[in-house]
Amino acid sequence: MKKIVILLIMLFTVCLSGASSVIAASEDAKELASWKEGPSRQAIVDFVRTVTDSKNKYFIPEHKRIAVFDNDGTLWCEKPVYPQFIFAIDRVKAVIEKRPELKEEAVFQAALDGDHDSLAKSGAEGIQKLIGATHGGMTAGNFQSIVSDWMESARHPRFKQPYNKCVYKPMLELLDYLRANGFRTFIVSGGGRDFMRPWTKETYGVDAEEVVGSSCHLEYRDGDVYRTEKIDFLNDGKEKPVGICRQIGIRPVAAFGNSDGDFEMLEWTKSGAGKGKSLCMIVHHTDAKREYAYDRASKVGHLERGLDHAAEAGWVIIDMQKDWSRIFPFED
Question: Has this prediction a pTM greater than 0.85?
Fold first, then answer.
């Protein structure tokens, strides 16, 4: 009789364990609903289950669960050109009304003409000049209002939606999934910090102080904080780990990007794990029908080193076409 009771207890325990696994899988499916079953989705679920299990040797305490996300091309659509460049182009007319001499410079003429190819060819120096002139010379509060108004009115040329609606549904689900499991989520972008801060909370659930980005020089005068035309910090490539150190102060355990500008951020995240666990993922744009398909030959979101290095580094490539059942929240 005693043996029967023990067997019944063991059977009940196994069934209970199995039921718990089914419930967990069901919850994961609900929270990551736009992710198709496959290696990418499984890598996320396995990582989160492992590092949040206090009995697992790879357990990571909550205060160290830092996840960083690039923005352009990782969280929202960056084609046909970075949305912040469109914002700058839209601002050029207002700036030139006050400073007509700028019309003589090639980068500003290209902006007036909507010539994206010439803008791209102007390089970092030309783009910085454009960004400086269109983003500086006003108070921080005024700039925030201008960005917010632009977000309300501007529309993506292909999708005819506000830019902050052209965000990736699977990545929104991933942000929520990580936060539900004790992670803090940060945006670490080459885009402007102050350009993103007015709308990241509503769009991604990411607070203003959790946004790390490029920034202009600020100065206090006449009782207010003013933006200048001088670029203070360009948060891209090798500077992304620097930006994380400066603002967050903790090395991430999970990093998500889409271009070679994110390479060092993923590399640093992976190396920081040592013999522990980390999760590094690259969004590969492979869906020309639902979004865009691009990588090595693209000037916007150029991805080459990441593709070549991912397998060796243990990074996961997210294939947009294969891994996502839905791309945008506004899809039927």
Answer: yes
